[in-house]
Design goal:
hydrolase activity; globular; single chain; alpha+beta; hydrolase; Thiol Ester Dehydrase, Chain A; six-stranded antiparallel beta sheet; 26% helix
Length: 143
């Protein structure tokens, strides 16, 4: 009998949290993780705001990318983004709590496809689609 998939996902996520200085410095928090899925959050602070007084799109992308990373590495095999697109639907004000939910849509060989929905409360503020590739030779995220 193999290891519990939820345990593998939790161990991989813990290793990634320790190593991901970019997400940590941006204020990204892991809320939940499981095989092929992840939920992360971030509170929009003054450092995240652009010249219009709204959350900078780069931080929205970073939050979605962090969710993608947790979801795609949740099997304990190293995966990196191969490409991604984001559609900004609504502006996000300072002080807002943004939650990004990543869901695996397809996995074929070493390639994966993930959708990430960013919400403030029940309102969808952005949609992100990421493509990943498992990379042999990188240390697994659980080390």
């Amino acid at each position: 009998m193999g290891e519990d998939p939820d345990e593998i996902a939790a161990r991989a996520a813990a290793a990634m949290e320790r190593a991901d200085a970019a997400s940590r410095e941006a204020g990204v928090r892991l809320l939940d993780v499981g095989p092929g899925r992840a939920l992360v959050g971030m509170t929009v602070q003054a450092r995240h705001v652009n010249g219009h007084g709204l959350c900078h799109g780069g931080y929205l992308f970073l939050l979605a990318d962090a969710a993608l990373a947790y979801a795609s590495n949740s099997y304990g095999t190293s995966a990196v983004a191969a490409g991604a697109d984001i559609t900004f639907l609504r502006p996000v004000a300072a002080g807002a709590e943004i939650v990004a939910e990543a869901v695996e849509r397809a996995k074929a060989g070493r390639s994966g496809l993930y959708d990430v929905t960013l919400r403030v409360g029940a309102e969808v503020v952005a949609e992100f689609r990421g493509r990943t590739r498992q990379v042999p030779g990188l240390p697994p995220p659980s080390e």
